[in-house]
Design goal:
Helices cover 19% and strands 36% of the residues. It is of the alpha+beta class and 156 residues long. A five-stranded mixed beta barrel has the order 1-4-2-5-6. A hairpin with a 4-residue loop joins strand 2 and strand 3. It is globular and about 35 Å long. The mean pLDDT is 89.
Amino acid sequence: MQHMKRLSFFVYGTLLPGQPNYDLWSDSIREKKPATFRNGRLIDLGFYPILFEGGDSPVSGMIVSIRDEDYQLIINRLDGLEDFDRRNPDASLYRRVERQVTLEDNIWVNAWIYLGNPKMITGGAIVDSGSWATYSQIKKNEMAKWWANWRLGKSE
């Protein structure tokens, strides 16, 4: 079995602080810093975003480091949330890949990022600002109702 790299994560959507999935990993976070993914295209899928490579906009997010003792638990949890299948990444809506992101001090770092699989998505509104945290405030009430219903219907 190949050993997986222990990279930090670049997150841009519902895993950010103040977003609905932040509680899935907040207790395991060691450090978080603002960061940017260059040349992306952020798409609104209604109540959560998806990020594609190859756009011409920077996408705002955070680089998040996980405590060593929680790393495997968190990567499994996030892969599950994003429906990422390590054995069959091309059939996954999101793919966890290693990419470079830029920190505020213009330092580049490699991180895991969940990018959308272009074969799986057509349509959706482009988030011109490149910031899901800012954009989602516009639909805050509508999104809160959807997320509450989604959580109630989710079996765990």
